[in-house]
């Protein structure tokens, strides 16, 4: 069954359909194991996002958001949805401005003295939210921005960080209430990529676990170079009902057992025996009728010939084109 559902791949950066180092396929698998995941391939107003509920995940957008899309996000949040916006130097600020939020992603990266490979991969242990820090040794980033005007920071850079000539710890993640929903801002989309996923998986698991509803809409429409190029499986949980799959597999297993056990062959033998008996009884009934007609003075051979011609259709057009 899964083989019959379409699959797409892409080489766009920050695409959940991209299996390369700069893609989010590992994060996508994590979402898939946690709930239902749907890539968003069309503008939000075409999708009808405002009527949906769950979590909209926007990572590394570089395509402008239309006013209609922003209104859809606003309705989505006011209805209780969650927005995860992970960006650094893309178009995330455009969406924040449209929603009327004061937060912004800095236009320059923050640098630090604590890093993994080199200064372009700073690390931090400054996670203030206990639900996010459980089992997390550190968080690895790649040239991250910071969240300016943060209201409720949950993650900071290390104290040995610098931005625009100032030293200290700067917010990397901020959680903002919006209507009945909330907005989660993360100033580095690279923490979600396949390249950094092994180091950041515990944090990402905690992040997913903190979400109220495990229905995920992953934005692909705002990646300028998004180009699906092959087919195979996508959104299995959305396309196939889990309970129906269970009963389907159970039915196939029962059918296989029925056939392999020999019961199927016995059933066929019984069926053919019953059909043979039926036709024998029908033939015996005809022979008895012919015998009675012969006793009345009719020619039995001619009656049998007439019956044979009726069965073969030789006098009903089958042999004469009528």
Automatic annotation (TrEMBL):
Chain segments annotated as transmembrane: 245-268
Stored InterPro entries: Class_I_gatase-like, DUF4350
Pfam families from the UniProt entry: DUF4350
Domain DUF4350 residues, every copy: 18-207
Keyword annotations of the record: Membrane, Transmembrane, Transmembrane helix
Keyword Cell membrane applies: no
Entry keyword Membrane: yes
UniProt-recorded name of the protein: DUF4350 domain-containing protein
Biological source species: Thermococcus radiotolerans
């Amino acid at each position: 069954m899964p083989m019959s559902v379409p699959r797409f791949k892409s080489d766009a950066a920050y695409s959940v359909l991209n299996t390369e180092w700069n893609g989010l396929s590992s994060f996508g698998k994590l979402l898939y194991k946690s709930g239902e995941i749907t890539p968003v391939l069309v503008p939000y107003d075409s999708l009808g996002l405002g009527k949906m509920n769950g979590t909209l995940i926007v990572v590394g957008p570089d395509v402008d958001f239309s006013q209609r899309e922003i209104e859809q996000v606003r309705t989505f949040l006011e209805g209780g949805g969650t927005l995860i916006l992970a960006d650094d130097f893309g178009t995330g600020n455009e969406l924040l401005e449209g929603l009327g939020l004061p937060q912004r992603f800095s236009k320059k990266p923050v640098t630090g003295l604590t890093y993994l490979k080199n200064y372009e991969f700073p690390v931090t242990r400054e996670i203030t939210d206990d639900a996010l820090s459980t089992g997390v040794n550190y968080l690895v980033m790649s040239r991250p921005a910071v969240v300016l005007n943060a209201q409720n920071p949950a993650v900071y850079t290390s104290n040995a960080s610098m931005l625009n000539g100032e030293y200290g710890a700067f917010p990397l993640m901020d959680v903002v209430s919006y209507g009945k929903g909330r907005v989660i801002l993360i100033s580095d989309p690279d923490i979600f990529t396949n390249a950094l996923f092994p180091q950041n998986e515990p944090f990402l698991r905690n992040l997913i676990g903190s979400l109220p509803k495990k229905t995920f809409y992953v934005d692909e429409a705002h990646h300028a170079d998004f180009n699906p190029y092959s087919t195979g499986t996508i959104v299995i949980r959305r396309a196939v009902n889990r309970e129906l799959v269970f009963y389907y597999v159970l039915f196939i297993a029962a059918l296989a057992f029925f056939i392999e056990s020999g019961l199927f062959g016995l059933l066929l033998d019984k069926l053919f025996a019953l059909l043979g008996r039926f036709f024998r009884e029908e033939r015996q009934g005809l022979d008895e009728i012919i015998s009675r007609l012969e006793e009345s003075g009719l020619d039995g051979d001619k009656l049998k010939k007439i019956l044979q011609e009726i069965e073969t259709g030789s006098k009903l057009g089958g042999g004469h084109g009528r």
